[in-house]
Amino acid sequence: MDTAQHTKELLKKVRRVELKTRGLSEHIFSGEYHSAFKGRGMTFSEVREYSAGDEVRTIDWNVTARFGHPFVKVFEEERELTVMLLADLSGSTDFGSAAQLKRDLITEACATIAFSAIKNNDKVGLLLFTDRVEKFIPPKKGRAHILRIVRELIEFAPQGTGTGISEALGYLNRVIKRRAIAFLVSDFQDKGYEDALRIANRRHDLVALRTTDPREQELPNVGLARFVDPESGESRWVDTSSRKVRNAYRAAALKHQQRCKEIMRRSGVDHAVIGTDTGYVRALMRLFKQREGAR
């Protein structure tokens, strides 16, 4: 494919993702996103006359003395936030046995969050990682900036194949000094990242989205098959007709799932599971509503 044709195809993909995810952010997620994530605090807006039910502590005594009847201070949430998207592009994200690849799922989930954020006048940045930090786009506002983020999520060709969650979170802490909302979107095929998760969650408001695919939970009976680990490159022949092998595969998948849940619980990180077969809409809605209820 020549350069012009490649560019044309890429723009079509970006436009398709924009139409789907911006629509979701405007009609489904916008209000929930605003309610689920706190601003930096409250800032003074104006004064108005006291009415029944107002808190006494909000009375502005100077204005009250000047006019001879009570006035109260009105405060508004200082809304502008910084949102960072940490997207896993390791080898395992190029897998998918259902409606889409895990990478496509990550792209759409990140795009929906990004459009929800700019609709609320928040800044959005992107950090792409594998076993290393592959690319960092500093937080900015605006549709053009979000389309650049979508384009990188679709097209970026990483150098690494493994998963380095600690490296990604360490980089986030170094480059983003003020508290941000950080969405870590990964299948978490990694170990030893618990401390990094706790530290990042103290500095920022960290939210984890774990990607899954049904074939990672259940091994199909297709006889003798060659399996390749997309992150390490190792391969082996597996007899999938063996019930013992399939049961062991299922048990390992369940162990990974439980381990991830326990790590998130201990670290105090809000999390949700999004799947190539189930999508991300319901999972994000539940997560946002849970956060809203916890405020």
Mean pLDDT reading: 89
Neighbour order of strands in the largest sheet: 5-4-3-6-7-10
Q: Give the domain tally.
A: 2
Quote the CATH topology of the largest domain: Rossmann fold
> Can you tell me the residue ranges where pLDDT is under 50 for at least 5 consecutive residues?
none
- Please give the radius of gyration in angstroms: 23 Å
Number of beta-strand segments:
10
Query: What does the largest sheet look like?
Result: 6 strands, mixed
So, the CATH homologous superfamily of the largest domain? von Willebrand factor, type A domain
- The SSE string, one letter per element, is HEHEEHEEHHEHEEEHEH
The helix count comes to 8
Return the CATH architecture of the largest domain: 3-Layer(aba) Sandwich
- DSSP helix fraction: 40-55%
What report would you give on this structure?
The protein has two domains: 3-36 and 80-294, 3-Layer(aba) Sandwich (Rossmann fold), CATH 3.40.50.410; 42-78, no CATH class. It is an alpha/beta fold and 295 residues long. The strands form three sheets. Strands 5-4-3-6-7-10 form a six-stranded mixed beta sheet, with helices on both faces. The chain has a two-stranded antiparallel ribbon with strand order 1-2. Strands 8-9 form a two-stranded antiparallel ribbon. The longest helix is centred in the first third of the chain and has 34 residues, at 3-36. The N and C termini lie far apart (51 Å). The protein is elongated and about 90 Å long. The mean pLDDT is 89. It is built from eight helices and ten strands.
